[in-house]
Structures are given as structure tokens and as C-alpha cells.
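Ticket reopened. Same input as before:
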Amino acid sequence: MAVTAENIVPLATVDKSQGYWRAVWSRFLRDKVAVCAGLVAAGLVLMAIFAPWIAPADPLQGTMLKRLSPIGTEGYPLGADELGRDMLSRLIYGARLSLFMGVVPVLIAFAIGSAIGIAAGYLGGWVNTITMRTLDVLYAFPSVLLAIAISGALGAGILNGLLSLTVVFIPPIARVAESVTTSVRKLEYIEAAQASGASSLRIVRDHVLGNVLGPIFVYATSLISVSMILAAGLSFLGLGVSPPNAEWGLMLNTLRNAIYVQPWLAALPGVMIFMTSISFNMLSDGLRSAMDVKQ
Amino acid sequence: MLVFVIRRIFYTIPIMLGVSLVCFALVHISPGDPLVSILPPDASVELQEQMMAIYGFDRSYPEQFFRWLGLAMQGDLGNSIATGRPVASEVFNAVGNTLILAVTATIIGFTLGSLFGFVAGYYRDSWIDKLATGIAVVGVSVPHYWLGMVMVIIFSVELRWLPATGAGPGGSSQWMWDWVHMQYLILPAITMSVIPMGIVARTVRALVADILQQEFVTGLQAKGLLDRGVLAHVVKNAAPTALAVMGLQLGYLLGGSILIETVFSWPGTGFLLGQAIFQRDLPLLQGTILVLAMFFVILNLLVDVAQTSLDPRLQRG
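Engineering reply: fixed in the latest deploy. New output:
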């Protein structure tokens, strides 16, 4: 009897979750805007991975004679920057650091924030109160200000930029994780699992995670767009990535002085940031509505 | 209501303490000696110790924190390491300029955003809705510092209609609401307004669509109330939430104005922060961030109280 029950329960959940995700996937495919956004985002990721094969020139090697060549110059399809480096190659290579700086903080914050939020939500009581009140302090800062405060104090550098963005995104993710977990914890099957003597760790692993990670993840993807804008913004201010690296925010920063000489050339890196941020935004919107069971 | 306000204020006090602790910690998480930017590299140990004592860096952390907090509450945020001037007066001047920019941007963003959101929610799923929703998505996804650069390129570099940077002939301290000065405000304010516009539009659209589906609206229509009358009811129901979003957005703009102020060299708190970062002037960085964060906390409190007094249902929650 005990053996059959143990066999049936995991099987049943696996089957149900597969059906759910399949339904989500087919709903997602019907959303044309989201699919387009997904393709653009995937294209950008591929561009970052295969940059050395796609880029026509070395992103760090410039010719002073070619500095600030306009868009459409022979051999420089998108012009050359203030040090005579090929703009197209720099934009392609720029995807590497820009996406890295935008996506990684959200991933780390997703891991840490979910852990904090799920623990607080499941344990409840004073643990919950202390954890959430502490996070409220970080929540009390506007996100841009907190990111700039931390990386301004730590100084420029990729690691400092990543660190400050991660700190910014932990509180909102933990908040969502906590509220989702609190609502799941009150469900009857959790009570049943507790009554059957399962340990907290086991209940969280087998019964809570599967129900809360999806919504938290979707929320986290909606932060990628913000994170991209913020990460590039830090480099734009001279924090985050430092020269001569190719990163879109930093490129905007160094090209800003050329705005009266080659205005549209100077604006190009921003187009890339915008494209990335809007495609991730629409992708996450599509994911959310596909996962919304009420629809 | 009074009980709610008092409880809300009591809840804010530990948050404020926490916020000041974070600001205090900023100086101490920064690598290296905080005095390194003013002392010559060959300064004697004696001089170093003397400076440490003047700035209070030689005491224990809790002692430093409470001393700093006590002084901050009296309006003394220390002196800027780079200029030697009191941080409080520098921040005070700059906050005024940032407020001019952020309030103007919030008003523009709120007006346009609620207009778009209202039309989109009222004519749900029509082409107007799709257009307005599209504008809202662009508004929240666009890197606003880049948008600022594009505005400068179009209106200053190419068309030469408006000045690109600065806050007018008076510099940072003599703002006036006349055309000579206001033309400097147009580009940064419009650029900044794009963020709240997108968020307000999204919120208002969802609110209006939700309210229109409620039974009381059907009831009003069945009673024979004209569309105009129904609209008034919808506005009344959507207003508290929309105003709350506007208040919070003002707070975000105050805190997040650094990027736009950098693009337009607007002499506000963001410009000050940029300076502090560039010169590694930690007291200036700390003081500016403390003031901006406190603004945000107090604004949050005011928004909560205002929203609750407009919508008494929230008190029970």
C-alpha cells in the first residue's frame, strides 16, 4: 500500500506538470509578438556567442586615420568610432559583455532571492518578519539609485557592476517568492504532507518548488529588460565595464563627445540596448500570459 | 484613519534607520583609504592620523554611525572631500533643480500616460488599444539616457531648435519660469517623462478595463446613465491607484535622474552624484544618496496615506 502510494504521487505530479508546460508552450507559440521577440532575443544571444566568426574586424584594433568615419564608409559598413575601430564589429562583440552584464545579475538574484523568499514564506512567523523587514530597507531605495550607490562606492569594474545589480534585484525577487510560497503553504496537500511526517526540506523540494519556481522565474525574466538598461547605464556613467572593452553602454559614453560630428553614429549602441531590452520585455510578457491558467 | 497614519509612521522609522545604515556602510564598503583622494601620496603618518581624526574615521563603526546619524539629523552631512564645502548645502541646491525636472516630467508623463491608458482600456482590443499598449511597452523598454541623446541629436544638433545642455544662463542656482530658462527644461523633461508614461498607461489601462467589467457599471448603464456619466464613475474609481502610481514614479525619477542629468548636464542631484563618483568623493556620494533615499521613503509614506484617505477600503487591508 505504502509502495503504491509513493509510486503514484510522483508519477501523477510529473504527468500533470508535463501537460501544463506543454499547454503553456502551445499558448506561447500562438502569441506572434512574443515569438518574434523570442527570435530576436535568441538572435542576439547567438550573435554574442559567435561574435568572433560574424564580426568582420577586430573590435579593439583601430586606425586613427579612420576615426569617426560616417555610416556606409568603404570597409566600415556602420562607420568607425572615436578611435577608428570598426563600429559593426564593436556592436557585435558588445553583445557579449552587455548581455552578460544584463542577464547574469538577474540569474544570481533569482537563485538567492528565491531561496530567501521560499525559506521566509515556508517557515513563516518571526523568520519571515525579520527577513522581509530587512529586505524592505533595500526596497526603500529606487533601483537606479541603489545600483549607482553601491557601484559608485565600490568603483568601476565588471565584478562591482554585477554585484551592485544583483543586490538591487534580490529584494523584489524575494518578495515575489515569499508571497507565492506563502499562498502555496496554506494549501491542503502541504498540510497532508506535513501530517504524513515529511520533513520541511522534503516538502519544499517535492511539493513547493514545482509550484512556485515557475511564477518566480517569469517575474525574474521581466527584470532582464530593466537589468539590461541599468547595466548599460552604469557603464554609461563610467562605472561597470571600463575601456577599451566593447560594451554598448560604455560605447554610448565614449561616443557622446562625438555627437556634433557624427550624431547618428554615436546613437547606434543605444539601438542595440533598446532592441535587447524591448525583446526581453515582450518575451516575458508573452511567457506570463501563456502561463496564466485563468486565460 | 489616525490610527492607520500613526501605525504607518511607526513602520517607517525602522526603514529610515536601515536606509541610513546602508548609506553609512557605503563609505566603508569602498576599497582603499577614504582620504586617499585629498592626501598627497607622500603624506606623513602623523598627517594621515590627524585627518582621520578630523573626519572621525579613527573610531569604532557603531560610534561612527551614531555620530554621523546625529549630525545628519541636525542637517550636517559632513564636508565634501574634493571641494571642502558642506555636503548639505550642495545637495540642497541640487535637489531644487532635480525637483523642477522630475515634477515636470511626472506631470507630462502622468497626463499622457493616463490619457493613453484610459483610451486603451475603454476601447479594449481595438487598434487604439494596441497602439497605446505598444507605446507603453516602448516607454518602459527604452534606455532613457539613449533617448535623451537622440532628442539632442534631433532637436539640438540637426534642427537647432532647443539648447542641448545646461539649465540656462543663470547656471545652477538661478532658475526662473521664463522662456529663456524653460527651453533648457523641455528636452530633459520630455525624455524623463517617457518612463512614468509607460507605467501609468499600463496601470490605467488595466484599471479601466477591470472597472468597466464590474457589475456597478452595468447597473449604471442599465439605469440609463449617459456614457459621460459612466465615465465619471470610472475616473473616480481609477483615480486613487493612478495617483499612487504617479507618486511612486516621482520618487523613482528623483532617485533615478542621474542618467538623464548626465546626458543633459542638468545641475541637479544626479550631476552631483556623477561628480562624486568621478572624484571618489565619498561624503558627497553618501550625503546625496541619503537625502534622495529619505525623499523616496517619505514620499512612499505620503502616497500610502493619501491613497488610503481617498479609498477607505484600503484601511481594512
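Chain B has a mean pLDDT of 82. The CA atoms of residues 45 and 140 of chain B lie 52 Å apart. Please confirm and we'll close it.
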